[in-house]
Amino acid sequence: HHQKRYEKYPNVLTVGWMNQSNAQAEAVFRYLAHRNAINMYAKTAVCGLVTGQPSEADLTSLTESWLDAIASASSSPVPALPTQAVSSAEATPIRKAVLLVGSPRTRKSTSASLGTYLFEQIKSRGVETEIIQIYTSINSPQKSQAMIDAVNNADLTVLAFPLYVDSLPAPVIAALEKISTNRSGGNSKFAAVANCGFPEAHHNDAALGICAEFASQNGFEWLGSLALGGGEGLVHGTPLNEMSGPAIPIKKSLEIAAEALSNGQPIPQSARDLLAKPVIPNWLYKMFGGFGWKQSAKKYGVKDLSSRPY
């Protein structure tokens, strides 16, 4: 996280609404709210949840309890992200797979590099594959429908995306909402590949928990996920088949995952562990990161990175 700039930061109250009770979805939401409160350096963070259509009196009572907690500096308990169980259904080989790339940089993104290499390996195993860029499809009714049809007709859908504020980019969320609204088809499968700028891969956990919950609520068999930390500094949109050296473990992880996914099996833990290993040491990441911020600031004539404009 960035260094603190100000002496005081606001407390945070996060309120969510659910149509009906869902313990797994609630736990993911509370964990995401907790992560966002950390980003805001909130001294007191309270998370409230409303289910169904409460009466005005009940809603008033809930609101007062949340505000009282803020006033008394009583933060909500630190939640645990629930374990996302992978499908235990009998595995069947995949015939058709679709990759959804959820980065605004589309084909030149790290998400595309990871997803494309994975799908090259899947295709080499006799699976028919298709790659769709969410950012160039979401605002076109025709392309959006083609995306929905591709997902509904596929045996396997894989979402590759960059982490945005501990969650998914807004256009990716919009795409998942469209897919959910128009969901049809049989027992198709779903997996996800996330990458973030932080050197530790675990920062992707909340977003991948959202992906798993999406799969559960929309009739997909969840085949698990992969998470890469600090990949932007190494990959930066370069096709992985053009890379060697430090990229070898990344490619090996995707190859292991491709073998399992092609057979309709969950992503092995060995692939997850391999991709989650830090690409560069933490100290080196911080050094290059600090240099990058200074170079960016220099372009705009900013000399003091700790200045307080607000």
Keywords:
single chain, 310 residues, Rossmann fold, two-stranded parallel sheet, 7 strands
Topology order in helix (H) and strand (E) letters: EHEHEHEHEHEHEHHHH
Query: Which CATH first-tier class of the largest domain would you pick?
Result: Alpha Beta
Strand order of the largest sheet: 4-3-5-6-7
Strand content: 15-25%
Quaternary organisation: single chain
Count of DSSP E strands?
7
Sketch the major β-sheet.
5 strands, parallel
Cα-atom Rg, whole angstroms? Answer: 21 Å
**How many distinct folded domains?**
2
CATH 4th-level superfamily of the largest domain:
Flavodoxin domain
Give the helix tally.
Answer: 10
Shape call: globular
The pLDDT mean sits at: 93
Q: Roughly how many Å apart are the termini?
A: 19 Å
The low-confidence parts are none
Describe it for me?
It is a single chain. The chain contains ten helices and seven strands. It is of the alpha/beta class. It has two domains: 12-71, no CATH class; 96-276, Rossmann fold, CATH 3.40.50. The chain has a five-stranded parallel sheet with strand order 4-3-5-6-7, sandwiched between helices. Strands 1-2 form a two-stranded parallel ribbon. α5 links the parallel β5 (156-162) and β6. α1 (23-39) runs antiparallel to α6 (205-217), α3 (110-123) packs across α8 (248-262) and α8 runs antiparallel to α9 (269-276). The longest helix has 18 residues, at 282-299. The chain is globular and about 60 Å long.
Topology:
Layout: E1 12-18, H1 23-39, E2 45-51, H2 56-71, E3 96-101, H3 110-123, E4 128-133, H4 141-153, E5 156-162, H5 170-181, E6 189-196, H6 205-217, E7 221-229, H7 231-234, H8 248-262, H9 269-276, H10 282-299
Parallel strand pairs: 1-2, 3-4, 3-5, 5-6, 6-7
Helix pairs in contact: 1-6, 3-8, 8-9
